[in-house]
Amino acid sequence: MNALSITKEDVDKLPIENCNTEIVVIENRLTAAIAVALLKNKKQLGFDTETRPSFRQGVENLNKVALVQLSTETKSFLFRLNKIGIYKPLFKLFSDEKIQKIGFSLSNDLLALKKESDFEPRGFIDIQQNAKEIGFESLSLQKIYAILFKKKLSKRQRLSNWEAEELTAAQKKYAALDAWGCLRIYKEISILYSNNG
């Protein structure tokens, strides 16, 4: 087996990754301001978004982005846009080229966010592209993570209701893991890049 590929069957045999960060759920502008003040001093952040699924086959999902996740190595911040609305200081982070926002297959996330607020995305890094350049053959987030860390990112909550009044513990963990996992992959891939010359 190629070291940079893995089958779904092999992924399924791996132990599930646990969330190793503190999770902070942000549902009002006051906590959003505190979180953004902390995050704007970071150099690298894991990034992801969640949108309530529509379940209408063949129809574009017109639901708005409900959640933006930004993660450091120790803390994951879950910004509930469906509750706080478009918070401009948060979107300023998305245009700050000095802060690397590391995500996976970013085009849809950024397109959806640009529908909410006109901003110029800067400083975004797509780890799927990085993995492809290194030579990974398996290019899903779950498979890349499994190859690098021999753990499985559970995808069970992906199609849950991200606009629910209260997020479940499982939703919070899933959302935090996706952003934190992207940051962790990037750091590991950066080591691979340097080792490959």
Report on this model:
The protein is of the alpha/beta class and 197 residues long. The protein has a single domain, classed as Ribonuclease H-like superfamily/Ribonuclease H (Nucleotidyltransferase, domain 5), CATH 3.30.420.10. The protein is 41% helix and 17% strand. It is built from eight helices and six strands; from the N terminus they run αβαβββααβαβααα.
Q: How is the main sheet built?
A: 6 strands, mixed
CATH topology: Nucleotidyltransferase, domain 5
What oligomeric state is this?
single chain
CATH homologous superfamily grouping: Ribonuclease H-like superfamily/Ribonuclease H
> Strand content of the residues, in percent?
15-25%
Q: Which strands sit side by side, in order, in the main sheet?
A: 1-4-3-2-5-6
User: How many domain modules?
Assistant: 1
What gross morphology would you assign? globular
Extract low-pLDDT stretches. Answer: none
Mean of pLDDT: 91
Structural class based on helices, strands and sheet pairing: alpha/beta
Rg, rounded, reads: 16 Å
Keywords, please?
197 residues; alpha/beta; Nucleotidyltransferase, domain 5; 6-stranded mixed beta sheet; 8 helices; 17% strand
